[in-house]
Amino acid sequence: MTDSTTATDAPAAGADFSPAVLILDESGVVQAANTSAGLLWGAPADRLNGESFVRLFDFEVVSEDPDLLEAQWQALRETGLDRTSGLLARPHDGPARPVAVRLESAAGLADKLVATITAPVATAPAAPVGAESAELLARSGNVGFFDLNPQTDGAHYSPGWKRILGYVESELADTYATWLDLIHPEDSAAAPDQIGRRPTPGTRPFSVEFRMRHQRGHYVWILCQGLQVINDDGKVGRVTGLIVDISERKELEETGLISEERLDLLGGDGPLGLFDLDFTHQEFWYSPAWCELLGYEPESASGPDSFHACLPPAEAVNGLETWWLTRQPGRQNWLEPVTLQKRDGSKATFLLGVHRQVSRRLDLARVTGFITALPADLTSAVHEGALPPDLAADALAAVAEAVFITDAQGKVRYMNTAAARLLHMTPELALGRPAGDVLRLVHRQTGTPGEDVVERALAAEKPLSLCNEHNLSLGENETPVPIVWTARVSFGANNRAQGVIVVFRNPDEMNLTPEELLKSNRFEALGLLAGGIAHDFNNLLSTILGGISLAKDNRDYSALADSEQACMTAKGLTKQLLAAAKGGSGAMTVVESPVILRESVKIAAAGSDTRIEVHAADEIWPILVDRSQILQVFQNLVVNAIQAMPPAPHRGLVQLRAANVTLAEGQFHTLAAGDYVRFEAIDNAAGIKPEHLEKVFDPFFTTKKHGTGLGLATVLSIVRKHGGELAVDSTVGQGTTFTLFLPRADKPAEVQARRAPTLRFGTGRVLFMDDDEKICTLTANMLQSLDYKFDIAHNGEEAIKFYQRYLNIGRPYDAVIMDITVVGGMGGEECFKALHELDPDVRAIVSSGYDNEEMARRFLDLGFCGYLTKPYRVTDLGKVLRAVLG
């Protein structure tokens, strides 16, 4: 306990004093001190907090060297634990004085020690703590005192004892019956008023943990310590002691056990091969799953050489630390596919997740992360290999865009047919010349020479956006040609630039269909959102890897629940990103207007510091739309507003509003009379100049330096396709408002009722089919925890054999869960058709990594009963089984 009361003069040398008590951690640093300690050392008690214990005493050798202080503490702890030692206390002011010091483990406080300092007079007892202090502690402290007399039904409970259980002093009777009424029925045998197996008359100390009922009805965990008096007849005559509430500690212990189990499932026999490479302290650790993925025996994987041996020979020549430092320069967290070499010499592709720590001197300090096997379809894509040179040249010659490629010094090494036509130059004449001499740019507005495209690409941190501010100069007697262009750097295996690819085109030659317009804008929007999405993914990855690192390093499992939630958030963000990339499916669905607004903000606002507000009441009418295309509309409007915001200290604000309106005939000249939902996107950005307002919806018109002019043209096209209309109003310096009308749907939105998450849904026999061994093992554990009987098949052929065997004896499986894609074997769709021929009542569930509503609908139309999206948790598996089995 600490006391910040100002210390008075220290007791004179040789005088008796009340025992000074210090609470110490494992390293000998003071955590708390009582008032007597402050008096002894001539300072307020709270000033002692954080002091090294050994610095409070005089030794033969005095030093501020941390290593010597640690050595002195270890020697003092080894010789003074559970015994009394004589030392010289060194007050802050005044001479040293002899004292008696006793070190003991603190009961109920993990990794803490109690140091008691008394006067060194062997014959005189130490002065007791003052009655006033004891009374104060009993009434106001976090400790409860009690005194029981089971023989007479007498008892005394301090106010602190009653307060721990939620009572005021007058609410509980001081009787032994009160004790018996409050203790948990299952813990009565462990209570201090019970006799052990071999009672011996006399007094004996005790320290027990049990539960007592709180005033609110729940039970709290209690640590109880004190003395028990056994009478000559072997019965408990008296029990006195104190209690402390340890419910929080118990909850942490239970949470720790659950979190440790999760970590074992993921990194033990689960799908993640975890590793921790501490180059600073030369400590290296690999999980059993890491060893299994790369073909190592757990006892043989140690030190940095185990990971270094997994690098392909061409990448391993510069050493493991260089390999880690040159990957993803400037990034602390990242995900990427990598090819590693197993112990048997074969190569395999894994998804690598990394958290890298670098010292101030840019030396590699530590790398923590995981590897996991990639699905077969992704692995095959990684290993496709490069196109033959002739085929690559033919492919580039066939595209409509002009393309030329330079080396790292900016000299042209290749030019396709379209580039030669636009530049009025043969490929042979361009080869070896600087890019600036071949692609001569001039600013469209000022006529001044443009910068070298290769130099600009090499200086940029990422691929350049489409630039439309230049004309192409073809010589003094030629009229300049407008072009739009972009460029990106190609990096080699050592992350060094090996060349630049430049792509350009005359925009007057562009003629996009409405479908091409939508697709081009969608890709542009995804490019604009990529930085923000990567920022959010890195934050989620930090949460995941941080939780794993805390659990492994410190056995602190409190962050694993956050890691799990971050995984589910990343899954949801990936689903939205895939939907945005895929574009509209053409399927019209009824959606709730407030929901579509909120969903559009999730990706559009990623990584931005602009505040986004959605104002849409629940009673707003639903709309009939192509969901993906309408998301694209609002994402375009939000992104445009964010990009138009002035720089700091301006605080950007974008408001999305929705309201129900009924238009009369002729009220809006392009819309028929009827019910509409009016949406508004309002920002406080720079505004649009009056001379630009009439052109903002024209294709390829833009005022942005790197824009394409497709965004608002796409928005207008989508809105009108849905029977709506779009308008804009803007004031320079104040902001812009886009107003769009969409017709009200003639039926309500479909709402799926949410079921409460429950783990145990009943019994049944399940057949699970997947070609990934890790997923099979993990799902088998999940099914077992849900009390289902199960069999595992690795392809469709095995699944059919299992099903036929049990069907023949009249016990078909209650459900079959099947992966769609099986490498080298029968997949889920083909297997389902065969099973359906055997048993038309087969209940099959799709297990797929594609979280896509259109794909789910397709399989459900084929006759599947459920759709299970990877990755999934035990609750997800249980819910889909309960839905299918009824």
Verbal overview:
- The chain is an alpha+beta fold and 886 residues long.
- Helices cover 33% and strands 26% of the residues.
- It has a 6-stranded antiparallel β-sheet with strand order 2-1-6-5-4-3. A 6-stranded antiparallel β-sheet has the order 18-17-22-21-20-19. It has a 5-stranded antiparallel β-sheet with strand order 8-7-11-10-9.
- A hairpin with a 5-residue loop joins strand 9 and strand 10.
- Helix 24 runs parallel beside helix 25.
- It is extended.
- The N terminus is likely disordered.
Helix-strand layout with pairing:
Layout: E1 20-25, E2 30-33, H1 35-41, E3 57-58, H2 66-80, E4 84-89, E5 97-105, E6 112-118, H3 131-140, E7 144-149, E8 154-157, H4 159-164, H5 176-182, E9 202-213, E10 219-230, E11 236-245, H6 247-267, E12 273-278, E13 283-286, H7 288-294, H8 303-308, H9 313-316, H10 320-326, E14 333-341, E15 347-358, E16 364-373, H11 376-382, H12 389-398, E17 402-407, E18 412-415, H13 417-423, H14 427-430, H15 435-438, E19 441-443, H16 453-459, E20 467-472, E21 481-491, E22 497-505, H17 514-554, H18 560-582, E23 589-591, H19 593-604, E24 611-615, E25 623-625, H20 627-643, E26 653-663, E27 674-683, H21 690-693, H22 711-721, E28 725-731, E29 735-743, E30 765-769, H23 773-785, E31 789-793, H24 796-808, E32 815-819, H25 828-838, E33 844-848, H26 853-862, E34 866-869, H27 874-885
Parallel strand pairs: 24-26, 30-31, 30-32, 32-33, 33-34
Antiparallel strand pairs: 1-2, 1-6, 3-4, 4-5, 5-6, 7-8, 7-11, 9-10, 10-11, 12-13, 12-16, 14-15, 15-16, 17-18, 17-22, 19-20, 20-21, 21-22, 23-25, 26-27, 27-29, 28-29
Helix pairs in contact: 17-18, 17-20, 17-22, 19-20, 20-22, 24-25
